[in-house]
Design brief:
Length: about 90
């Protein structure tokens, strides 16, 4: 994958793969975001095949990143910064 494609994907995922403000089905949200990513990539001249050659199924990658974002928010809610859990 070209350097341009790598930068595009990293920036796009950092911007779009945040914890949703309202509860959503991760797989459905990932499918929607995967379509958006493919469309945006095409707009800037990057073939989806080039991205998927490097990272595999883009929808799976997006779903994984969304799950990570949700988990991070849930962890922060359970253990806010500045607090310590007792063992």
């Amino acid at each position: 994958m070209s350097e341009h494609a790598i930068e595009f994907l990293q920036e796009w995922i950092d911007e779009k793969c945040q914890c949703p403000a309202t509860p959503v089905r991760i797989e459905e949200h990932a499918e929607t975001l995967a379509r958006e990513c493919a469309a945006k990539a095409a707009e800037v001249g990057i073939a989806l095949e080039d991205i998927q050659e490097e990272v595999g199924d883009i929808q799976d990658l997006i779903a994984s990143r969304l799950e990570d974002a949700v988990e991070a928010v849930n962890d922060e809610r359970e253990d806010p910064p500045g607090t310590k859990r007792s063992a």
